[in-house]
Amino acid sequence: MLAEDFRKKSNLKWRGILILIQIELKAFWRNKNILLSQIIQPIMYFLFLVMGIGSSIGLIHYGNITVRYEVYALVGVMGLLITNQMTQTIYRTTIDKRWGLLPLKFLSGIKPFYYIIGMSTYPMIGFLFQSCLLYILALVAGFSINVLSFIFAVTIAVTALLFWTSLGILMTVFINDYQRRDTIIAMFILPIGFSAPTFYLMESVPFYINVIAYLNPLTYQITAIRSALFGDLQVNFVFISLSLSFLSIVISSLVLMKTKLVVKER
Asked: What InterPro entries does its record include (predicted)?
């Protein structure tokens, strides 16, 4: 096999994903500081955003159903956690770039597609952990949420997470200066999270906010998650959410297949 074919052909096949998943699982449980932040973050969001705002609003009309604002905002928190998990992918991919592990993994027979799925393990585990914590907090607060509907909603959320992890890997590959990359992330994460309908209703805001919201991929992902949680599945939004993740993975795989395996991290 020629050197340029290593990223196109793989003797490892699906074992490549399993190897990466195993590595990322070990990294997640060994990083106590990250684990602590994964616990604190959803608790703070729940106490001060979900409970704090929800206590003054009560019931709201969402589509054809009436729900408690706290449950509506709970999905908004999940949306924020999804986008925040992108930083974990960037962190893990940066380590691979900085220490030459990225080219080593490719030369070992791991395909770009395998790499993307494998490197999504770290944020996926973090998000699943946070989602379980949110569900427990919701039950303690007295919210009635069907467990099967919640599992369905989290499943859609995990597929949406792949869009952001793929985007995070792309950013890490293209931007070699970590200070510039951190600046870009800091500038865009917050607007992405709050320009989507995480805590507001689309029909209750000015037109320009709706325009911005519809340009935000998170809007379609959150709407799909809410439709699953509330038992009123909106297939079109679920399809858009899945399509965004699929396109992001395909584009990232193609870019990784062509990128130069040179360590330039600064």
From this structure: ABC2_TM, ABC2_TM_bact-type, ABC_2_transport, Nod_factor_ABC_transporter
∠ CA 113-235-240 to the nearest 5 degrees? Answer: 40
Query: 3-state DSSP helix/strand/coil percent for the chain, to nearest 5?
Result: 75, 5, 20
Residue 183 banded pLDDT, cuts 50, 70, 90: confident
Using CA atoms, how far apart are residues 250 and 23, in angstroms rounded to an integer? 23
What pTM did the predictor assign?
0.89
Q: Which residues contact 43 (CB under 8 A, 6 or more apart)?
A: 133, 137
How far is Cα 82 from Cα 252, in angstroms, rounded to an integer?
18
Q: Supply the mean pLDDT for the chain.
A: 87
For 111, the 3-state DSSP assignment is coil
Q: What is the 3-state secondary structure (H, E, C) of 171-188?
A: HHHHCCCHHHHHHHHHHH
Torsion of CA 176, 179, 184, 187, to 10 degrees: 170
- Taking the C-alpha atoms of residue 186 and residue 165, their distance in angstroms, rounded to an integer, is 16
Q: How far apart are CA 133 and CA 131, in angstroms?
A: 5
- pLDDT 10s digits, 117-134: 998 999 999 999 999 999
For residue 232, give the DSSP letter: -
Question: Whole-angstrom Cα distance, residue 107 to residue 124?
Answer: 25
C-alpha–C-alpha distance, residues 235 and 186, integer Å: 33
H or E element at residue 5: none
Domain boundaries, the chain: 10-258
CB atoms under 10 Å from CB of 266, counted, come to: 10
Contact (Cβ atoms closer than 8 angstroms) between residue 230 and residue 144: no
Beta strand residue intervals within 32-83, DSSP E: 59-62, 65-68
Length, in residues, of the chain? 266
